[in-house]
Amino acid sequence: MGVVSAPADGFALADRVCSAASRNAQPALDIDPFSIEYFEDPYPAQELVRESGSAVWLPRYSVWAVGRYEHVHTILNDWQTFCSSRGVGLSDFAQEKPWRPPSLVLETDPPEHDRARAVLARVLSPVVMKSLRTQFASAAERLVERLLDLRGFDAIADLAQAFPLSVFPDAVGMRADGREHLLPYASVVFNAFGPDNELRRQAIARSAPHVAWVAEQCRKENLAPVGLGAQIHAAADAGEISRPEAETLVRSLLSAGLDTTVNGIGAALYCLARFPRAWELLRANPMLARAAFEEAIRFESPVQTFFRTTTRVVTIGDIEIGEGQKVLMFLGAANRDPRRWPNPHVYDITRVTSGHVGFGSGVHMCVGQLLARLEAEVLLAALAQRIKSISIIGMPKRAFNNTLRGLDALPVMIDPA
Ligand code: OVM
User: Is residue 119 assigned to a domain?
Assistant: First the structure.
């Protein structure tokens, strides 16, 4: 890995030398942000991306990489220039058939995007969150009591996965059987944004049963008459969207609503177990639960990257980018950009985290963020109230995914307060 000098296009060698010597030199990096080596320690490569230029060419994938906060934020807030309708993974939908029918929110641009987004925004609104809060808080308290009996457990399987699994599918209104497909399905979805590597190939090769089960669960007749799924179908009953559109929007909930919160909560637990001062602050004031979660999202950035595709020639900082180019946004690098964040590599739950791009920004900014925050808040508050300490008692095991950052296992021991 290192800074290499290579241009983005087919200029003759003499032109490359000139170009490299000019103010508009195109920096290039031979990093692979979708490799196991990178996942194990992404921070040196993220620093290279940030420090090499406002945009840097990745010859391995023929894409532009952006890691500075300012530019990631600019791209996220300019959907006209940096579109989502050609896919937000490496694959360009203008050139390749998507592995599944595109999402009506994630993989569209305004105005089509806005119609679908309005339905999801209503289904995931503050009023709906209020109606879910009591049941979510009770479920969190019950789970924490059970874990206190165990004392030692896996903070990923038994907590970060167990809690969302105990509240989210019920909130959607899903049937009880088959839910074991949900996490494997999401894992395919998030691996599929990456390049055609082993992770993506294997995930898609094994996806058929998960895809078939999820498609079936999106149908109105397979969703409870009350719940988030039913609310989406009510928009079809009212003629606001078509029935197939309602099913695809339920698919968005099932794609983006579980593995993300699992990794967000997992990030918070991993942070609180590693930073005892933060844990003590949270214990002294459980009202900091929401802040502790938000800072964990900034610090770990469970959704690490998304692509956009340029709709015109555009300049990012001092780098000119052609039309139809894939631009890889490093949300994790932006969330640790020292130009934007003091002591970016410190988990500090008293920090002002507003403006972090862990949930994105602009028209596509996470439509489920209130649900994610609700889940995390009630869970972290329950932990803070009932537990004195969390200690890591075994090797954390990293999960490898082309988009999601998180752990597969985190052996911990807890002591009651
Ligand atoms: C969707 C979808 C899938 C994955 C992620 C996401 C982070 C959305 O199907 O709409 O947003």
Answer: yes
